[in-house]
Amino acid sequence: MNRLIINRILFYFGLLLAIALSSISQAAPIITVEIKDHLFYPSEFSVPANTKIKLLIINNDPTPEEFESYELNREKVIIGNSKAVIFIGPLSPGTYPFFGEFYPKTAQGKILVN
Amino acid sequence: MLPNAVILILQETLEAALLIGVLLAVSTRVHDSKRWLPIALVSGGCVAAILANQMGIISEWFDYAGQELLNALFQTIICLAIALAVWLTATIDPLNPQPGKVAAFSHCAIIIIFCAVVREGQEIILYLGGFMYTENFQKVLTGGALGFSIGASIGILLFYSLVDHAGRERRTACLVLLALFAGNMLSQSTLLLMQIDWVTQSPPIWNTSTFVAETSIFGQLLYPLVGYEATPSPIQAAAYILGVTLVTGANFMPRYYPEKKKQQVQPVRGNDA
Fold this sequence. Notes:
The complex is a heterodimer. By secondary structure, chain A is an alpha+beta fold. Chain A has one helix at about 1-25; strands at about 30-35, 40, 45, 55-60, 65-70, 75-80, 80-90, 95-100, 110-114. Chain A has a 5-stranded mixed β-sheet with strand order 3-9-8-5-6, with no helix packed on it. Chain B starts with a helix and ends in a 17-residue tail after the last helix. The interface between A and B is medium-sized, with 31 and 31 residues.
């Protein structure tokens, strides 16, 4: 009997924790960046300082691309015609360049944190 | 197009090439067959091709965290296998190597190189695959071959410069390099967990980008060698220290806790003469 109650309490506690955790990760604002013809759209955008941001990168090209940034310490391959998620921040104010490692001549961009 | 292919393939090759160079130098001490190298290279290459082919599906695992989790897993395995290999080399008696331990060392070497090749190989395959049906394919392939050759040459150069040195110096150099590799792997894996928000990112503990920029040639060389990062976060630094400690600990542990040797009772023979 007691065990049943404890189990039930644990279950609701776990459920609450799961909701709390998922709401935390959902709290990060989403910014969508698209790749088309080896270019980033938008190639420049602003995000608030000291905030975690969820970058949704959609690769519209048939070829893979690698999102890379030394300043953000991020690196991720995005297959052709697919999307990827990268979390960045919280960041201090400044400019954070990023580029496509597979096509660095054209795929360039920067994030302005203010 | 060509210079970019050279740099990209060089970057990807360098890490595995350096690891192979150091492990080969270590293995000359334990007198094992070098069969682990072709086994690891071929199996790693095959698995890299399969993973590159399935990357679209893998990437979507765990709400778009599959790629990072898989790579973080490989990096953690590399770190642990390096620690095990170092522990084995520290306990193997070079004059009388125990076959069981030598075989175990070979298995560790296979695991380390396999994981390194899979990790870097899939990126190379994806990159080259993107150019497959374009007019630039030949150029990219030539550039890639050039980058690969430079990377392999640096690995060979490291091997010979390590082997050239006398026993003790070589052992120290190999240990330092392997410890830094292990630290680098573990620190990179925490970075990947931050990228998918499984580990919370905190502000960097320092910024040395004005000193040595990660984009500079020196920074590019330091990255695969010692895992140079201009703006590391505290968790990354902690993981780095943990990896280094694990490997150095594995090296010095046998010295303080020597294995119990089996009592060998030599039959006493009387001098008949």
